[in-house]
Every structure is written in structure tokens, then in C-alpha cells.
Amino acid sequence: MEDEGDMPVKDDSKRPLIGVIDDGTKTVRFVIYEAERSEELTSYQLDKTEIQPQEGWWEQDPLEIIHHIKVCAEQAIGQLTELGYSKEDLVTLGITNQRETTIAWDKLTGEPLHPAIGWNDIRTDSTVDAILAKVPDRNKNHLKNICGLPISPYFSALKMRWLKDNVKAVRRASRDKRLLFGTVDSWIIWNLTGGVQGGLHITDVTNASRTLLMNLETLNWDPMLCRLFGIHRDCLAQIRSSSEVYGVVNNGSILDGIRISGILGNQQSALVGQNCLLAGQAKNTYRSGCFLLYNTGTRRVQSTHGLLTTVAYKLGPNAPAVYALEGSIAVAGGAMKFLRDNLKLIKDITKDTEHIAGQVFSTGDVYFVPAFSGLYAPYWRKDARGIICGLTSFTTKNHVIRAALEAVCFQTRDILEAMNKDCGMPLSKLHVDGKMTSNDLLMQLQSDLIGIPVLRAQSWDMSALGVAVIAGDSTGVWSCEKWRRHATATDTFLPTATDDDRDARYTKWKMAVQRSLGWATTKKSIAMTGQTKRKGSMVHNIQSFDNTSRKNSVLDENQTESRKNSLASTNSSRGTSLYEYTNGESSKDNSLLEYSMETDKHVTPSIDNRMQSFEYSEDGVNAYEELLKYSARKFSVYVPSKPRKPEHTILDDADYFNAKKECDYGMCQCCDVEKKVLTNWKSIEEIIENDPEIIFDSDDNPIIVEPVHESNDDSIQELSNVFKVIYNKLTHTNLT
Ligand SMILES: Nc1ncnc2c1ncn2[C@@H]1O[C@H](COP(=O)(O)OP(=O)(O)O)[C@@H](O)[C@H]1O
Ligand SMILES: O=P(O)(O)OC[C@H](O)CO
């Protein structure tokens, strides 16, 4: 323990209350704090339904999030009377959320157009490749100087792009200007503030800084990035500061009439909760993933060692943004769930993990790299996959579980090494929080493996606390300035291992990481994945929460099956499928739009029956289907009728949302365009030669190049050759 003397002294006075909505990956919580007291007064939480329709896909039901918020708020507020408070004492709300998770919805009906795509979902793998194909040297760090992030499936722009490419309803909504995109904070606020009746479409700088679309300097959506990812700015939320009064709840819930005055992504919120408000302070939060944030003050430090530059907070519309360097680890506590649910090595994570791993004194030289969906910082390798290595005939489950705990510690050391190189000054202590830190063995291992003291916060949930402080600050009931001076009580773990031992083990860890890289580069056959057998079995029965009737309806698994394993949640009151999804479906119905100059209409593709020459490739994948899937979206042309304006007028966010126009990159109404798509095979060959960009029109309609084909056999021959070239290029294989 340290700094106990500075702990806030409880008195009997009644203080204003601050409510926090904390939407995590696995749970929704509603927490209530008394102003200026860091202990929770009361809270309620509900688990979310886990939806994993395919390997690497992680989805959530957006309506369930809203439903859970209402229930949790009712339950938590219900407990207030017993504590001598009433709902009227709740003066304001803060929202903290899992970041990057992306939702598309219809602004006229309020319906989500697809399940939320989770931050850890890796379905956008090929979308990433397509974007990389458009940047010099396919350099994943090409955009880092603008937005601080590498091009990775982790970030929201890729998920938005995927939704536009693969979900018919999203494309239609985009075309009809009904589409709204948002991270979870935006979805929650839009619903809380009225939804279809004037709900606010806003986000805060910390969440926006996780999209790959925000410029870290202007703190606005960057026109070049929007264009690169083909995301129209009208679909995006207005970017606001993290601490200001945005609006009032108006959704017929128990929260009606309460102000919303703080928004922070959950890792940034933990940074505030841990009181790391000065440059040079850092915290590490251990939950499903693990996120180390290092406050760099108003300086944007550009990492050259694999870390992200992100916004830490902006305490008011006129306050400067404070930035952080972040090391993100995709799998931390998630590995424990894997050991429990997949390998059945443990029954109860909290009770068993520490106990079982503590029965052995070391891992017996076993290393576990839990790269289930690739490796995040500092490697950013989406081709990595999990490995357990160093097994001998003496290895027991105790060693494997201990190795899984050590993996979290080694990954943290990876981040600290990178941070030291970027900042030039090693951390002297590490503040930690998150549910996983209740594991004393993990904490001791962490300190041993990084060689500095580990200071555990006394409450595991710093995320809810952080946003409570800033929501209180903007409404005058809690002061950030006071909070900065407040000292937090901690449990301290000191290193016991020697430097030599620590370094030898770290070297072995690096060797294990090397072995995990590149695993996912070669295509798997269906027999390898067991995908056919598993279809449907991985889809949990989910209940969809209807926005208006709030009736639950159970997902029809057969329907899910017919939708190629994607969640197709049904809305009982309408009896129709809520989510339409086209990826992998027959190309006949994929509405990939061919554009005909003569008719000026979109027409159904007519080339499918001429493509019979394509056969199933060795691993059972139909080359023709693959081909259409890729080529249709990638080989589109877009020719503006008038030249682009030579100068870009970049309006700031407020101007943009007031004027609703933007004279840049043909993305606004005033830059009307004419589409010219007539071309011939020669120009298609040229397009292929020049490694085309994915270009979408201003409404984001993908347009297939309409070939001028002669009606003789040669053209058929030529057609397949052309597509073979495309196919070979895209898959780096040699289809002959
Ligand atoms: N005592 C423990 N030892 C090891 N891992 C733990 C322990 N308690 C919780 N965890 C892990 O920590 C994670 C807790 O996640 P949680 O805080 O619910 O956040 P999230 O929203 O990220 O899922 C889970 O993945 C769980 O496996
Ligand atoms: O899994 P959570 O809820 O700790 O949050 C995840 C992070 O915000 C992802 O960036």
C-alpha cells in the first residue's frame, strides 16, 4: 500500500451522484459513484451473448447492448433507496466503452443493419490486403503520421469498409443516405438521446482516434482517409471532446432527463481512473485483452517501434487534446477463457487459474503465444496464430496454465521495450487494473518478468471511475484538477527474479513469437479447418432485443445456416430478416452493380454463365466464386465529369455539420459527378497492370466495369484469361 494519507475522507454529507454506462466486450455495467469518492456506491452488470459465427468472427447484438443498459440502470438505481439516495440525486452520466467495435444502422428506422463487428474480429483480413494494395510499398504504417494507427483488422474503418462491401442492407442504406456508422459510444448515445426522433450522432475524440479515419492533429475526420476507405463523412458521427454536456437522455427509460457529460474509450478511461494525468505516467489494464497506455501530454509521439499514437482525453471543447502511446495486446484474459472453454483445463477462472498454476514453480520451459487472431503491438502481424511450444513428456496442464499467465507478462514486456525505445526513458513502476489483476500470482510474475514494481489499484474497475471523474468535471460536481492531486491506494508487487533469469526467459519468449508468425499465410483446406462440420455449431442461440417492443426472439439456427453462418437475427414483430449479408452468397444475387451507359441503370451481372470454365481448385474452393467476390468489388472505375478542385477546403467538424457540405474529393453534394464506366478488355488489362485502387462513387456504389465484348469465342477465351490474371494477382497463386 502507498500514499494512504491522501485517501479521501468519507463524511456523512450526501453528494451528487454520477452514473456510468460501461459497455465492455463481455459485459454491460451500470455503476454509480458519489462525486469525488472513488469507491463505487452501487452497480449492476449483465453478460452479453457471445456470437462467433465463424472462426475469427466476433459479433455482438447492438439491440442487446441497449436492452442491457436499460436493465442495469434500473437495477442499480433501484438499489439507491436502500442507500438513502433517490434517482433525483443522479445528476449526470458518463459513457465508457469497448473501442473499435463497429455498428451500422439505419437513421430512419433505428435498426442495426448487421450485428456489431467486435474489435477483435478478423474477418477484414482481405479488406486490409486490398487497402494495403493502395498504399506505397504496401506499408501498413503508411497512415501512422496522420492517424497514429497501422492498417490492421483491429480498427473501425476496415470494419465499415467490410460492411459496405458485404452487406446489402448497408449498401442500400448508404445509397439512400440513411446509413449511420458508429463505435459503440455513438450507438448508445444516439439511442439514449432519442434515436429516430433526433438522436445525437456524436462520438468523442478518444473513440474517433481508434477508427483510422481521424486526423490526430485536426481532431476531425480526415478527407484523405475517408476517401481511401470509401467512407462518406455523412455516415460518421460528429467528433466532440471527452468532457462536455452533449445532451439529455430521452428514450423513455429510467435515465430520462439526465445529462450526458462524458465519453471515453475504456482504456483511456482507465488511464484517467488510475490518475495518470501527467505526461510520463502509464497504466496497464488486464481484461480480455491488455492495454498499456503511456501519457505523453499534449505531444503526439510518433512510435517507430510498433505502438499506437492515440488521444488520451480532451477535457472540454476548448481544452487541448492529451495524447498517449498505446501498446495493445489482443489476448490476455481471453487465453484463460480458451483454457477453460476450449481445452477444458480449468473450470472456474477466478478460483482455479492461480491455484493450478501455482502448483508448479515454473512453466517447465513451456511457452504459450495466444495469437488467436494475430498479434497486435508491437508486431502487428495478422498472420500469426497461437502456439504452445516446448512440450515434453513431463508437461502437465499446470505448466500450460502458468505459461498462459506468463504470456500476458511477456507481451507486456514487449510493449514496455517498445515504449522505452520510443520515449527513451524506462518506466520505473507500472500501475495496473482490470479483473485479471485479482490474480496475485500473475501480478508477481509480471513484476518478475519486467523487473519493476507493479502497483495494483484497489478497485479493479478503473474504466468506469475515469469517465465518472470527467463527467463530473464538466458538470461541476467533481474536479479533474483535484483528482490529479488525489493519491490512489495500491497493492505493490516487487520483482524477485534476477536480471539474467528474466532476460533468458524473455529471449525464449521471443523465439516462441517467431514461431507463431506467418502461420495464417497459407490457405487452409476445408478438411484442415473442419469448417463444414462446425457450421452452425459455433453459433449460440441468441436472443435479439427489439428496440420498440422489447420482445425477445430466438434466432432460427436454420436461417443462420442458410446465411452462410452469419448472424441473421430475426425480428419477430416484422417476421423478416433483420440483417442481410452477401459475402460468400451466390454471385447471382450479390447485387454487385453493373452499370450500363445506355440504360443508365444498374443491371444484373451477365457474365456468370460464361465462366463455366472455372473449376474447383484443389482445396475445394470454387475459383469462380472467389473471383467474383474479389474482382467485382475491386475493379470498379469512377470518372468524375468535371475535374477535381485543385484546392481542398477542409472544414472543421462544427462547420461541416452546420453547413453539411464539403468541397473535397468529390464527397459532397456540390461536387456532383457523372459516372462513366464503359470500357473494353484492353482497358481492363491496363487497370490490372496498374494495380488499381478500389474506387467507389460518391454514394459508394461499387460499379463493375462493363466490358465491350464481341460475340465470338475469342472474347470468352479472353474473358477467362483476364479473370485468371486478376485471380492470380489477388491470391498470389498461379491459376492456369
Ligand atoms: N483471477 C483471474 N486469473 C486469470 N484471469 C482472470 C481472472 N479473473 C478474470 N480473468 C480474466 O480476465 C478477463 C476479465 O474480463 P472482463 O473484465 O470481464 O472484461 P472484458 O470486457 O474485457 O471481457 C476474462 O477474460 C477472464 O478470463
Ligand atoms: O475488452 P474490453 O471491454 O476490456 O475493451 C477492449 C478494448 O477497448 C479494445 O480496444
UniProtKB/TrEMBL annotation:
A Gene Ontology biological process annotation? Answer: glycerol-3-phosphate biosynthetic process
InterPro entries, from UniProt? Answer: ATPase_NBD, Carb_kinase_FGGY_CS, FGGY_C, FGGY_N, GK1-3_metazoan-type, Glycerol_kin
Q: Where is the composition biased (Polar residues)?
A: 540-557, 565-585
Signal peptide (residue range) = none
- Keywords of the record: ATP-binding, Glycerol metabolism, Kinase, Nucleotide-binding, Transferase
- Domain Carbohydrate kinase FGGY N-terminal residue range list: 18-273
**Protein EC:** 2.7.1.30
* A Gene Ontology cellular-component term: mitochondrion
Q: In which pathway does it act?
A: Polyol metabolism; glycerol degradation via glycerol kinase pathway; sn-glycerol 3-phosphate from glycerol: step 1/1
What are the Carbohydrate kinase FGGY C-terminal domain coordinates in residue numbering? 289-472
MF-aspect GO terms: ATP binding; glycerol kinase activity
Q: For the region Disordered, what residue ranges are annotated?
A: 530-587
Top enzyme class: transferase
Q: Which family does it belong to?
A: Belongs to the FGGY kinase family.
Name assigned to this protein: glycerol kinase
Origin species: Diatraea saccharalis
Classification from the root reads:
Eukaryota, Metazoa, Ecdysozoa, Arthropoda, Hexapoda
